[in-house]
Amino acid sequence: MSTFSILIVDDEILTLNNLKKALEREDYEVHLADSGERALEVIDRYKPDLILLDLMLPGISGIEVLKTVKEMERETIVIMMTAYEILEKAVEAMKLGAYDYLLKPFKINDLKNTIHRALETLSLRIRVLEHLESEKGRYYFGKIVAESKKMSEVVELARRVAGSDKTTVLLQGESGTGKELLAKAIHYHSPRSDKPIVDINCAAIPENLLESELFGFEAGAFTDAKKRKIGLLERGDEGTVFFDEIGDMSLGLQAKLLRVLEEGTFTRLGGSKQIKVNIRVITATNSDLAKATEKGAFRQDLFYRLNVVPITIPPLSERNEDILPLALSFMREFNRELKRSFRGISQEAAQALLSYPWPGNVRELRNVIERIMSLYVAEEVQFSQLPLELRNRQKIAKQSAIEELVPAASFLTLDELERKYIEKILSHTHNNRTQAAKILGIHPTSLYRKMKGRS
Ligand SMILES: Nc1ncnc2c1ncn2[C@@H]1O[C@H](COP(=O)(O)OP(=O)(O)OP(=O)(O)O)[C@@H](O)[C@H]1O
Ligand SMILES: [Mg+2]
Q1: Could you tell me if 293 and 300 are in contact, meaning their C-beta atoms sit under 8 angstroms apart?
Q2: 364 C-alpha to center of ligand 1: Å?
Q3: Checking CA distances to 191, which of 101, 210, 380, 396 falls within 20 to 30 Å?
């Protein structure tokens, strides 16, 4: 941050001038005001970072000035200056959000130290706010690529459910389909966006540890519990708790979680005090929770409690229209990050991307693009730069396509073969003719003509 600006408000001109001199020597930008009215004008105009405010002012009082400052959007630090006789006023000011107070007369050094400390707090607060803003920006719905109908429906549903404060969401989808991305987008678009989202990966933490991570514990709860620990549920209070891989939670812990959800209270391990929490729960799983429920591996009552709004993210292979837009979006991201200037994808490489089944879904695609862009400096992604599995896959796809189209021991005319192949590609692209034409290597109008010629 550049130089901080300080406004000094006092009705004694001598005090104003002395403080101004002392603070300018510290390289602060200093403004002065000799009344509450004047102070409000200066605040409006110069938006100081810190205000040194005398409580005893004629006209608009120091307390009034403080109240106005605290109602503003900006983060401004207020330090009160007060005489001993009206110390109770300083207490009132602290309750209204003043940072600190100095008893008159004070030493210049004490003033400098207080200001220094206050400005450090301010920088930290600003940094935290900026971080929160950039987190929000990262999970902006607009950044989620959703060209396909299936995915845009998913995003639309997530957007709608984000607005309702407490609704529980269950995200289902294969690994790498974007469950975490969606969970965060929902949180950062909910009324709780200024509060934390805590995530817990139920598969990554051993069962006994998971319980103490969730609920926290009191000192002495077990041998290693030297100090009290606040659990994740408490840390997520007023915010969102994201349970990733919920299908891996043990049955015992499921029962305990259900109780928290129903009653909104719990106790730390080894404790007896009921702790109240207000959390929104989002869960994710890549297993079929309904099936697990039937088999008794997942509690039915908890399943119903979590499955209020189920959102299923389809695998990437079921939404081919997203592949190239995703690849291009990752390309823009890595251009920035790796200082590259890729502009597009060659026809042949695009075809390979479109015909690969993407078992690792969007994450795999992102990794492929990242790998190419860190290895090569070029304008276009070329077929030859693709990993082996993508290049091989195309050959296999071509071979098996023929076998699939022409049943063993039967023969087709060229016309019949062409018709079958076009049908197959069209079904693969969900009747998207532009994409089908791309794969077939012909112009969309020729594809249209071929289709028309047949009907
Ligand atoms: N529609 C999308 N638009 C942009 N980026 C996406 C999209 N879907 C996923 N991603 C990106 O793909 C990567 C994987 O997504 P994410 O971690 O959310 O998947 P996941 O479903 O939680 O996977 P897992 O089950 O393995 O934990 C992330 O980098 C994410 O930002
Ligand atoms: Mg995940």
Answers
A1: yes
A2: 9
A3: 210
